[in-house]
Design brief:
homodimer, alpha/beta, TIM Barrel, eight-stranded parallel β-barrel, two-stranded antiparallel ribbon, 12 helices
Chain lengths: 306, 306
Amino acid sequence: MQNFADKLIEAIKEKGNPCIIGLDPRMELIPQAFFSESEDKTKNELIEDSIFEWAECIIDKIKDLVPAVKFQSAFYEQYGVPGMWAMKRAISYAKSAGLLVVVDAKRNDIGSTAEAYANAFIGRTKIIDTEDPIFDADCVTVSPFLGRDSLIPFVDACKKYGKGIFILVKTSNPGSGDFQDIKNEQGEPLYTVLAKIVAELGNDLVGTHGYSSVGAVVGATHPEEAQILRTMMPKAFFLVPGYGAQGGTASDTLPCFNADHMGALVHSARNITFTHADQNISKNEYGYFVRENVEKMVADVTAVLK
Amino acid sequence: MQNFADKLIEAIKEKGNPCIIGLDPRMELIPQAFFSESEDKTKNELIEDSIFEWAECIIDKIKDLVPAVKFQSAFYEQYGVPGMWAMKRAISYAKSAGLLVVVDAKRNDIGSTAEAYANAFIGRTKIIDTEDPIFDADCVTVSPFLGRDSLIPFVDACKKYGKGIFILVKTSNPGSGDFQDIKNEQGEPLYTVLAKIVAELGNDLVGTHGYSSVGAVVGATHPEEAQILRTMMPKAFFLVPGYGAQGGTASDTLPCFNADHMGALVHSARNITFTHADQNISKNEYGYFVRENVEKMVADVTAVLK
């Protein structure tokens, strides 16, 4: 079974860039055309199909451009179970289109409950007489708040199923410092305490290209902290939110890369998918809008890596 | 609109105890009888119906005994979308049976994403031309790792919809100390830094009985820390995991209560729902098993409160 980090590096090399596009539905911003052929559907079918078809359209238009897509589970969960069906179908569609899939669920809990979340997103669940994959993403984001023991079931699932995780270390929001920057009695901020654990947990999951399937979430909005974290976790892949809508520039993401210009995935969502002004454009016009935004992002990010 | 903490206190007074029962499905432990009438169902229908009917059976048998039930979302998510349907149906059924419903989802994210999670569990989502409740629990558990700003959308939803949250402060697992006990330069552990924020955020949501709808998760496995936290958050309700299967006793939960013997909800799940030895018992026999376990827990917890 291939290591997730190896798959990721090969996908980045094939596509020539480390961009990951967030497919995060907001129904009020999805063009009308995705709701059009739906007069005989129930409301739940309309929700599920319109969100899935929106994601499908984007995947079709950008699958040759980027190595991976990210699904923010909150934006699907807010549409309830039909939203979750749409996410499941879109994950499967993205994978069949050759894209790697990260589910940004920031899940965690303790003991057997953490194991249940790992089963749901990157593992398998025993259902009657079979073990079935559930959402079956390639990778999921995980919160470390509950402690090192809560991370183990996810690391185990990575080993067993060739999957990956990104552990929250330093998030991109203004309030990220409230707890993540708290310094312990040795003067180390929590995010560096976390970095050590991420590096240690990742040791068993280093692939043939030298990177581990246990990665870290490090916001582009904190380039100084990113520099420190890059040194502390040389083998970890960074998932880098904060580029674009949150104010991070391509240059701000540079400290998240190693000297080999590898080791980071730069993420953007609403600046890619929701920049159209006219809700009445066709699906095809919308798709090209999104493709153009991805092309601009790819050019911007790869320019600073040269 | 009634304040969540007021509803909770009234329910506790009516039932005469502060016990909350966790309905966390593990298919391999659910008696065969819940899978029996299902030969013409698809696998997804079988998953959804068997889990829902299991929850329904328990709710019917215990609804007169306790004020609230808790759904651990991980155990539903591990069964994928059919599991989520079962959870949604069970939440609705529990509410119609007069029970308050906590969803233990430990969700959070930043900005508009935190808002999407709040919409999903305790708020409403704009869907085409209506604003719809989604999972519509009375209360959800929230992770504070991303910072104070990430908690605001949940507090706002509590105000708008008469709902509640429990913010993770000191969890019950062995590794909880890894990050939650880190002491800042003033010598304050992270859990007390969090306690101050919980108290502050809860100020606007204090009901007529003197308690706030912004509560805290504090494990029964840490009675000394609970004592400190009780003093720091006098108006916060505590959701107290760790009783029973995790080794906490009824006496260990005492520091989580105020002098009025109010202010804490004591939780148990697998020690209530999965103590039967025989998988071939009838639904009715199983229900009485669960009821007996709840009666024992109620007697145990109320004894120390006298």
